[in-house]
Amino acid sequence: MLPTWLKISGESAQILLHVQPGAKTTEIAGIHDNALKVRVAAAAIDGKANAALCAFIAKTLDISVRNVQIQGGEKSRRKILKIAALDDETIQKLEQMGM
């Protein structure tokens, strides 16, 4: 069974995130209000935190950053990320992110 913050459809996935910009380090910080909480070291100025978030998720999943895009909540702490070009290994990594 998938976590509540993760939806997989065909060859893509959506991740519901709660993002904390301006943190000391960039890291996954567990679950917050049915969303995966991610602390991002970059400030929420001129899209820097969003770019850092996409780069961090891509690195964590070992995929290209072009396969990670913000689908909703660009100017909010609550975001939806779309992950494209899924394979079985990436799905497995996604499922383990909140643990």
TrEMBL record:
Report which superkingdom the organism of origin falls in: Bacteria
Q: Which InterPro entries match?
A: DUF167, YggU-like_sf
* Coiled coil regions in record: none
Q: Name one GO cellular component term.
A: cytoplasm
**What family is it from?**
Belongs to the UPF0235 family.
- Recorded protein name is UPF0235 protein SFMTTN_1181
